[in-house]
Amino acid sequence: MISFARREESETPPRSEGVVGRISREDSRSLTETITQNVSDGILMVTASGRITSANPPACLMFAITYPPQSGEIVGQTLLEATHLKVLSDLCQSARESADVYEAEVRRLGRNEGLIRARAVPLFSDAGDATGDVLLILTDLSELDRLRTVRTEFVANVSHELRTPLASIRATAETLLTGALEDPEYSHRFLQTIMREADRLVRLSEDLLELSRAEAGQRERGRFDLCELTAEVVARLMGLAERRNVSLKFFPPETISLMVRADRSQIDQVIFNLIDNAVKYTPTNGDVKVRLNLNDNGHAVLSVKDTGIGILSQDLPRIFERFWRADRARKFQSGEDGIHTGGTGLGLSIVKRIIEAHGGTVAAASELGQGSQFTVTLPLASDEESIGSERFVTP
Ligand SMILES: Nc1ncnc2c1ncn2[C@@H]1O[C@H](COP(=O)(O)OP(=O)(O)OP(=O)(O)O)[C@@H](O)[C@H]1O
Ligand SMILES: [Mg+2]
Predict the structure, then answer these.
(1) Where does residue 209 rank: exposed (0-12), middle (13-18), buried (19+ CB within 10 A)?
(2) Cα of 310 to ligand 1 centre, how many Å?
(3) Which of 53, 184, 187, 207 is 20–30 Å from 311 (CA)?
């Protein structure tokens, strides 16, 4: 493994003294080994001639090699042979020549695609001379990179979603100001457009707030009956279903009540979003059935089944993404439907975040043109959990 040139005991104390105290040479070697074996960064030791003399487990993982490496793998190879990244050998060369630390972000393509930060640290002899050996520290930034992309896309999506209603409000107000205000019929219609677009903005901001709450894991847990809550939400959406001529029915479990310990308003939102979708994406004369049951694992199972437009099988894995909407759904809603102005594609991502934060699962099955079924599971409250100092939402 990696070893460092060390000062003799009699010489000036190593820099680490004062932090860990003086340690023996053997201890120091074992400490170094323990550290390199257990850090999450990849560490490669590269000699003056550019060959790798040791690699720790994360370094092997980064280059898709099992640890410990087989003979001929990584150790003994040049940096270029082992990693195929010329930028890494250049970095080591610069560190070697200047006897200074060099750092760069390196993007890997192909099978091990991702972003890494490479830090080349030159090593020195006891006398303070650069040995030519370089310690190459590799930090995997792929997750950070993914989050950066997600954030950029998120901001772009939010801006886009804001721009459409705002542009519409502006254009309509302009038309009113340039004369339409005098015509009662037109002015009424235009004001309705402004109201509708403003409602859409309100919904978007509420959804964004809800999403950020769900992502931040903010919850106020209480104990309540899921049947009661589902019945409440169904009742709230009955008007919408009637207006759309869609039959909405709730089938509660026959005898048991399903007590859960969760954030009631968040679970309300989950049930609402699922039934709202089912009603929204089901044409006239279709039906939506909401069922609640208990599964073998003792979890509550809520299923919302509709006879609606359905989802393409290749789209199914994407429906829980933020802002994702099927083209068919957009057309379906903006067509004959005067009730909705179109959603933002945040509903299901909120559902997923909330349910997973509560230790449950959510799944979707669908057949294009036939209908969809969304199934949510939620752990039941255990009896001990009902005793506690937390505020209960419903007794
Ligand atoms: N029951 C369903 N039937 C058919 N398609 C659905 C159904 N539920 C969701 N979808 C599809 O998944 C997409 C994402 O749903 P989601 O609830 O996240 O967003 P939305 O309903 O478009 O907008 P929002 O819920 O933010 O108002 C929908 O646009 C639609 O394409
Ligand atoms: Mg929705």
Answers:
(1) exposed
(2) 10
(3) 207
**Contact by Cβ (8 Å): 133, 43:** no
DSSP, res 11:
S
Distance CA 378, CA 196 (A): 35
More confident site: 394 or 63: 63
- For residue 68, cis peptide bond before it (omega within 30 degrees of 0): yes
**Of 209, 372, 364, 367, which is closest to residue 280 (Cα–Cα)?**
372
Of 179, 374, 163, the C-alpha closest to 288 is: 374
What is the C-alpha to C-alpha distance for residues 347 and 359, in angstroms, rounded to an integer? 19
User: Which residues are CB-neighbours of 77 under 8 A, at least 6 positions away?
Assistant: 51, 52
Pairing of strands 287-294, 247-251: parallel
Q: What's the first-to-final CA gap in the chain, in angstroms? A: 62
Which of 208, 319, 328 has most ligand 1 atoms within 8 Å of its beta carbon, as the pocket-test mutant?
Answer: 319
Ligand whose nearest atom lies closest to the CA of 374: 1
Return d(Cα 257, Cα 305) in angstroms, integer. Answer: 21
The closest-lying atom of ligand 1 relative to the alpha carbon of residue 282 is: 3
- Extract the tokens encoding 13: 């104390």
Cα separation, 276 vs 281, whole angstroms:
8
* 98-153 residue pLDDT tens: 999 999 999 887 777 789 999 999 999 888 888 999 999 999 998 888 888 888 88
